[in-house]
Structure formats: structure tokens, C-alpha cells
């Protein structure tokens, strides 16, 4: 069972890798979702190992947080596509000026 | 049982590497759908059917459908590939962090058998000890919906 725990940490790190490497907004959202999903699985496993129900409750709360996060992210994506006509992150460097 | 868990975990890891190297967005979203379903099956195999149903409903049913809807609405198909030099550095750092964490966890005494809880015990704890966090998540979802509506509407 130790190997499942360690491999789910690798899945979380792969989500971070998608956020770092990809240049596109929708891929960054996908990386955040993958990280949050594997994180809730990790919390679930931890609660099963320690015998404490708190981890499962945190997993249920993370479901709600990631659902609202993707709603806001897709709203931002549609706004950015309206303004610039592209979704590559490099094009939004002058947005704060 | 144990082998089945390992096989599903390894398949989801391979699919996550496919997402990193893929350039077609719709295929990546569909692979993410597969990963979410595999994680849901892992929940089911570990004896938590409620989290399996929640995972399928929220991630596979809600988030992926919303993402596909947004992708087809704004009409994007492909993106640029990853930068080669950055990719090598990021992969090396990724494996370094992974091996450090695995090295720490190597000596931790994991129990042979998992402790499973009854569903009513979990919901008693959720609605007694964690009531404020539960309500705050509800408020967060409502604020997210209102914020998305206000930011997208025509002025």
C-alpha cells in the first residue's frame, strides 16, 4: 500500500509539471484540477492510514473548492479570448500596464 | 485487489505524461476525463462509494463537460509544444522532489490493512465539527458563480 501512496504523490507533481511547462491557459487549468484531484486522493489515503476521518472531510471540501475554481477560470478564459483573441500566456504580459 | 490498484495508478500516471506531451487540447481534456474516472475507481476499490460518486459527478460530469463547452465556445484547437531545455530541467526537478519525498516515506511504518469508516460517522463529523468550513464552501461556490457571470457579461 505504500507504493500507491508514493505514486499518488508523483501524480500530484505531474499536475505541477503541467502548470509549469505548458504555455496555454486551458492547460494550466487542467494542471490545477489534476493536482487538486490527486491531492484529495492523497488526503483520503492518509485518513485511511491514520484512522482519522478528517482527511475524507477535507477531500469532500476540496471537491467544492475545485468546482468553483474551474468556473472562475473558464470565465477568465472567455474574457481573455474576447480581449486578445488568443489564449497563450506570453501574450498577456502587457495586461497590467 | 492490490495489483488492480497498482495497475490503475500506473495507467493514470502514463496518461498524465501524455497530457504533458500532447498538443491537441481536446485529446488532453479527454485524457483528463480518463484520469478522473480511474481515481474514482480507486476510491471505490478502497471502500468509499460516496467519494466515487462525488468524483464521477463533480469532476467527470461537471468540470470536464464545462471545459469541453468552453473549448468549443472559444474555438481553440492546438497549442505550442513544450520548450526542450525547460522541459529537461523541470523533469529533473520533478524526479528529485519525488525521490526526496519517497526517501522520507521509506521508513514510515504503514499499516497492512486500511481502517474504513462508516458513512454516517463521517457525516456526523462533517456536520458537527466542520460545519463552518462546509458553509464557507457553499458561500464560495455561490460567489464563484456570481463572479463568473459578472466578468463575462456584456457591458
Integer tally of domains of chain A: 1
Number of contiguous helices of chain B: 6
Just name the CATH architecture of the largest domain in chain B.
Up-down Bundle
Structural class of chain A: mainly alpha
Q: What is the CATH domain class of the largest domain in chain B?
A: Mainly Alpha
Number of helices of chain A: 3
Computed over alpha carbons, the radius of gyration of chain A is: 17 Å
Can you tell me the overall shape of chain A?
elongated
Average per-residue pLDDT of chain B, rounded, comes to: 89
Order of helices and strands of chain B: HHHHHH
Can you tell me the residue ranges of chain A where pLDDT is under 50 for at least 5 consecutive residues? Answer: none
Distance between the termini of chain B: 56 Å
String of helices and strands of chain A:
HHH
- The percent range for helix content of chain A is over 70%
Keywords:
heterodimer, A: 97 residues, mainly alpha, 79% helix, elongated, B: mainly alpha, 2 domains, 0% strand
